[in-house]
Design brief:
Blueprint lengths: L1 H20 L10 E3 L6 H18 L2 E6 L8 H12 L9 E7 L4 E6 L9 H17 L3 H16 L30 H24 L4 H7 L1 H6 L2 H27 L3 H12 L2 E4 L2 E6 L2 E6 L22
Parallel strand pairs: 1-2, 2-3
Antiparallel strand pairs: 3-4, 5-6, 6-7
């Protein structure tokens, strides 16, 4: 009987061993679960606030878990079990990320949901672990390592350049203004629309200045600050510098070349003798205050100068 019991119990024990040796999955208590107690209260609060802001803004759910040891369990398997048990991310979007740190085993993992694998590929996750978190952990700086790692994950999810700098996650702002003039952070469609508006306006006045005899030089100097500043919004400081240099050289070069053409000389004579000239389908006139432009495509019809005494009738329906 004893042998029978031994033979019966042995397979059961063998089946239960993996279960008994497996690390329990803790309860999900918040966006930051410091079960290993390696973070300061200030770090916990900073991380919680940053992750909440990011989740409210994007819907992506990033959660941090620290646990002292996994025993004999593989961190990849454990992270996957925790991720699926906690069901991180939105249903149907699978936009969750789990950052797990095991200090006693000196290991960590960034587990990425299906929906974010394109945004956070394995190579980037590995880079964050190796270049951002590992050096700080080696120095015993768990607070700095986790903060920098989380911030790097959020930077990747936001489509920003990976820096590993520590700081609060804030709603992304349009950096196309003067706060970040080195590299404007603007979607391509917005760049095209803003570019068409800005270059359309200053380009039109540049064209007018080039083809207008005499007074066009006033526009040349007048537009210099516009060419120096406005292109920064679209192409950054280096691009704006190229635009400015091109304008400073191109405007007088083209104007001097046009000066040798017959129609330019004719327009110059018409302005001097008639007070107006037709250039490129537009009518330009000279006066004491400079030149004025109007469309020259019509027949030139205008009123004879009459007036009305208020007679007539009105109606409603």
């Amino acid at each position: 009987m004893r042998k029978i019991l031994q033979h019966a119990i042995l397979p059961v024990m063998l089946l239960m061993m993996p279960v008994l040796s497996a690390t329990d999955i803790p309860y999900l208590t918040g966006r930051v679960n410091d079960n290993a107690h390696i973070m300061t209260p200030e770090t916990l609060q900073l991380l919680t606030d940053s992750l909440k802001i990011h989740e409210d803004r994007t819907g992506n759910q990033v959660v941090v878990l620290t646990i002292s040891t996994l025993g004999d369990e593989n961190i990849e398997d454990y992270a996957n079990k925790v991720f699926n048990e906690w069901k991180l991310g939105q249903k149907g979007k699978d936009n969750g990320i789990l950052i797990i740190i095991v200090p006693d085993d000196r290991c960590m993992r960034i587990e990425v949901g299906y929906g974010l694998e394109g945004t956070m590929p394995d190579l980037l996750a590995s880079r964050i672990i190796q270049d951002v978190m590992t050096p700080r952990f080696r120095d015993g700086d768990y607070d700095g390592g986790i903060l920098a790692g989380v911030n790097s994950v959020l930077q990747v999810l936001n489509g920003e350049t990976l820096t590993g700098e520590v700081g609060n996650e804030e709603p992304s702002q349009d950096k196309s203004g003067f706060s970040d003039i080195d590299s404007p952070d603007m979607p391509l469609t917005q760049r095209i629309l803003f570019g068409a508006f800005i270059f359309g306006i200053i380009g039109l006045f540049t064209f007018i200045g080039i083809v207008t005899p005499g007074q066009g030089w006033f526009l040349y100097f007048f537009l210099i600050p516009f060419w120096a500043v406005f292109p920064i919004i679209i192409v950054g400081t280096q691009g704006a510098l190229i635009c400015l240099i091109t304008y400073l050289i191109g405007f007088p070069t083209v104007k001097l070349l046009l000066k040798k053409t017959k129609w330019y000389e004719k327009a110059k004579n018409d302005l001097r003798t008639k007070g107006s000239a037709s250039i490129g389908g537009f009518k330009v006139s000279s006066g004491s205050s400079g030149s004025s432009w109007s469309s020259g495509g019509g027949s030139g019809f205008s009123g004879g100068g009459g007036s009305s005494g208020g007679g007539g009738a009105s109606g409603r329906w």
